Amino acid sequence: MIKKALLALTLAAALPVAAHAESDLEELRGSDRLTNEWKLVKHDKLRNIKAYAKLEDGKKIRSFRIEAVIDAPMEAVARVGFDIDSYQRWYWQLLDAKLLKKVSDREYIYYLVHNAPVGNPDRDVILRAVVEPYTAQKGYAQVRISALPDYLPPKPPLVRMQAEDMVVKYTPLGKNKTLFENEGYIDPGGNAPVWTVNFVQRQAPYAAVVGMLRMVQLPEYLNSDKPLPYKLFAN
Q1: How far is CA 96 from the centre of its chain?
Q2: What is the rounded CA–CA span in Å between residue 31 and residue 53?
């Protein structure tokens, strides 16, 4: 009787988790329910994060958009984004990260290795980032990121990603708040099932912002007086 009671309690506790997982899978497999208009898919009111998705015409993989109001100056938030060598401390499911080349004070190239979902080979990607500095007229700074799949020879068994293209935008909201926006599209290359790719596109941007919220409060970013490695301000 005791064993039966324990089993019943275990099953009852598992039901909400199972229902949540099934709901996630239904959403991930059901990307055809999305349109080419942004749809809010997650709203974390506690952390002021909103995540959106859409399915552009002619594509099977969803695009993503993330918005977050961060309690830190724009410069501190950008410091976290510019510090490639520290990405493994906070970026979602990242196995390796390194700066390959600083092209100029407005451009750099870096390399990432992503831990893929179970049953899929891990992915690597080479990315080119171009900084568009803040001006008072624009009211924001942004970084355009695009994949360079042929920049390095393939590194089997890693699968080279064909796209991890994003536009990251920093908008100051007063002295100590920043609107962080990230909009983009990922093509993992290889033969990954569409639902697993959509799973990553749903989880990764949100998880990365949660990590950034933690990192930006560290003194090395929040209180640093070191020169920024890239030109965040036009003047």
Answers
A1: 15
A2: 9
Judged by phi (left if over 0) then psi (alpha if -120 to 50, else beta), residue 197 lies in alpha
Q: Are 130 and 105 in contact (CB under 8 A)?
A: no
Q: What is the pTM of this model?
A: 0.84
pLDDT at 1 over 70: no
Mean pLDDT value of segment 169-176: 94
Compute the distance between CA of residue 52 and CA of residue 67 in angstroms, rounded to an integer: 8
pLDDT tens digit sequence for 13-66: 444 434 444 444 444 444 447 888 999 999 999 999 999 999 887 777 889 999
